[in-house]
Amino acid sequence: MYAQALNAKDAAPAIAEDPVKLAVFQARIDAEEKIEPNDWMPAQYRRTLIRQISQHAHSEVIGMQPEGNWVTRAPTLARKAQLLAKIQDEAGHGLYLYSAAETLGVSREELYDQLLSGRAKYSSIFNYPTLNYADMGAIGWLVDGAAIMNQIPLCRCSYGPYARAMILVCKEESFHQRQGYAIMLAMARGTAEQRAMAQDALDRFWWPSLMMFGPHDSNSVHSELSMKWKIKRFTNDGLRQKFIDATVPQAHYLGLTIPDPDLRFDEATGHWEHGVIDWDEFNRVLAGDGPCNRQRLKHRRDAEADGQWVREAAAAYAAKQRKAAA
Amino acid sequence: MPLASPDPRAAWLMRLGDASLILGHRMTQWLSRAPTLEEDIALANLGLDLIGQTRALYARACEIEGGGRDENALAYRRAEPEYRNPLLVEQPNGDFAVTMVRHLIFAAYATPLYERLSSSNDAETAGIATRSAREMAYHLRHAAEWTIRLGDGTPESHARAQTALDDLWPYVPELFEADDLDRDVAASGFGVDPSTLRGDFDAAVAGVLARATLAKPAEVRGQRGGKAGRHSEHLGHILAELQVLQRAYPDAQW
User: Fold this and answer.
1) B197: which residues sit within 8 A by CB, 6+ positions away?
2) pTM
3) Where are the domains of chain B?
4) Interface test with B, best of A58, A67, A79, A80 (most B CBs within 10 A)
5) Is the Cβ of A238 closer than 8 Å to some Cβ of chain B?
6) What is the ipTM, given to two decimal places?
7) Domain spanning B8-248 has what CATH number?
8) Residues of chain B with pLDDT under 50
């Protein structure tokens, strides 16, 4: 998931880095060595990673909401337990990723503040609502599926703590993706009403899932430097194509229709060609005007505000204990 | 009020399962709303344990009953009067203090309950109880640690924790009142008489309240009825939400 941060403009003023250090750094990257927290790194490398990792963490945390929307209404106890475990995994990913970001010299509180104030982004996909239970299938199958395409290469990212975090995250995401597909399969083979729910979920999540990979390479601001530094290893369009090629046959197996009248298989290239992506919609959602942007942020802000007195109590208790021990 | 199952052992296990399901449901309502990310993970974990206990208890009850019902029939196809959980677990989450004090009370009751039940004359039930006792001992520790922090934290958290304790204490007596069903399964060596657990409960809670600087509320007659199928207004809303898909699409397999 959630490599959209790599497409954001870096607004900070350019600093002239020491050319010798920069050359040594690049040589290490080229030799596939991992960069670790105490190693020298260019300021922009640090900024890019903080932005990327924290956006990923924010996405995991905000991503708990659309799925949390169905956990009290899950249709069987087994499905309820699965969904609950999945959402718990996401909270765990968030925690793990905030910790990885902290190795770059930023605090979790600062990153939270960026999220709550609206300065930091999270994946655009979570600004769409979950309207029927099949959405739990579609999110696992499509959203986690798209996330895995993005994240598998990140397991080889040049920054050690992020790369290692991604190994755990990818294992869990793969499991979520299979669970999601199993939900879609049960519903696609279920009653007429369930099939209609499954199709409706695919109709609503297909295009937003393709948008998760970010703008076309020709419009992507940051790809080149991120590729050189091996933060990112494949282009947006390359990953999107891989996702489409893997997913279209899965939709056919479900007996569902992909909501793209221009979708066709190109015999010459061996790839599925998709229709035009509505980038106006993508930009609107990124800019804060998606169906749920305000709702998601308000929920997060309310939870933070409601928990303030609890965190203060824990801190006050710890201070008393320290004082008593001194 | 007739038993929830023709077999008293099954009816008794269902009653335990109902309590863990409804409390588990309350825990899932916290998702993405906890005071810290760590606590979001913890509350989800507590919920998962409770849903898991429910499934094991319901599954064994259905086996004993020997009829056509399964765990989902019990969870999704019974109305309020057929649910036999104590009133405590259906009380609203309130603020974090209410949820933690409610959990402290429940875990301080359920831990010795499952510890004793682990010597049930039914090996399956004993196995479920052994695992559940281990889990509930951890729940007790978690709820106790938070109750201590809230009670001995700031003036605001102390006031909130004391209010939660005062408001929930009337639901304590029902947990320990044995009815004919309790006495029946205890006498046969299958189950546990809850009136024998009050000493363990009082000892566990007294230690926590002392460290939390919270005052134990005066013993009241209390509210009861859930174990006999007469609930508070809250259960109907919980079931309306929990059962909506199974009720709306009764022919669907999920």
Assistant:
1) B109, B112, B113, B116, B175, B176
2) 0.95
3) 8-248
4) A80
5) no
6) 0.97
7) 1.20.1260.10
8) none
